[in-house]
Amino acid sequence: MTVLTSLTLAVAACGGGGGGGEPAAPAASVADPAKITGEVTWWDTTRPDSEGPTFQALIKEFEAAYPGIKVKYVNVPSDQAQNQFQTAAQAGSGAPDVIRSEVAWTSQFASLGYLQPLDGSRAVDQPGDFLPGPSSSTKYNGKTYAVPQVTDTLALIYNKRLLKEAGHEEPPKTVAELKQTALDVKAKTGAQGLALNVDSYFLLPFMYGEGGDLLDVQNKKIVVDSPANVQAMQTVADLISSGAAAKPATTESYANAMTALKEGKAAMIYNGPWALSEIYQGKEFQDKANLGIAPVPAGSVKAGAPTGGWNLAIYAGSKNIPAAYEFVRFMTTAKAQAKIAKEISLLPTRASAYADPDVQGNQDVAVFKPIMDTAVARPWIPEGGQLFQPLLEGYQDLVGGKSAPADMLKKVSEQYHGIMKDWS
């Protein structure tokens, strides 16, 4: 899933994790990759209960195809993996051979010399088949440092029964409609209308909806405290103060929102395709037809949700580079992506995978694909992974009543200027 944390980067640590040299061998020089031996430690960031089994099944298929390679599977919580990899790579020990890297982390780790360049290696198979958006997140300074595994964005996920009982046959298309629908649900069903997740990634649809953003990359300008974003934060605050959204806790809000949706205590949440396998475990969605998925409601300017996803990257200091190449190659094939899409509804990054019957047969993927096509690109810059902690702290202050929208964003802007000192 795409739940993000901050990473405090020490400039002096650059290059501390490994050589960052050129790939050990181009694809054409490998005569029989099935004879490669070694042990690959993989840090997986999926949810171990609802997503992990699919990836562990793929590992068994890989080991059957490559009997000389063993995979050591380690599940690392997605909100801890970034800092843990940074610490291990900086120390030069304890880092995995392969990490499932959130798209915002990839350029960051590459800039520090922690990732193996992959151009010309067997890790990157048929690069032209990858969708442009996910592929762009794997690049840094013109080189490829990862392979796209899955892509995602946010949508409005809702309980059709509760909306219908509140008099709404269709999901809200604007934030104004979202507020009214949520109030109607609360008044007519007793359930909460909207459950918010206090996480900075989940604020972005509100910002994009008002025409805002965090950065103006082209002009190297920090714009997080723009009037558009102030309006977006006022919108979020109004959803809470009006009762349309339950006042969220400042911690564990993701789990709380998911539980409320699954148990029929809340009608709507914002979430991504990674959440579907867990949602279907809830009592409200034993009948999958009760789950609705729609684009995030539009603000006054547009409807927009962020581009997310996960890449597979290889640690530059790995002692098992050839084996790691084969593992990354296998886990990002169209066949592997089709299995992932079929079983847990994660969106493929390969264009060819969408022609697979297993992918076409998953209605959740079919619904998310056009939403994904309109997702807003995030800046793939080394500092990208550091932008979310200041925004998260500001969001917590906002919902906790400790800060007004303009003051909250002013503080976030000041923290951004501390991170990117040469930006205006």
From TrEMBL:
Record's keyword annotation contains Signal: yes
Keywords: Signal, Transport
One Pfam family of this chain: SBP_bac_1
Superkingdom of the source species: Bacteria
Transmembrane intervals: none
Gene3D superfamilies: Periplasmic binding protein-like II (3.40.190.10)
Family: Belongs to the bacterial solute-binding protein 1 family.
PANTHER family associated with the record: MALTOSE-BINDING PERIPLASMIC PROTEIN, MALTOSE_MALTODEXTRIN-BINDING PERIPLASMIC PROTEIN
Protein name (database record): Extracellular solute-binding protein
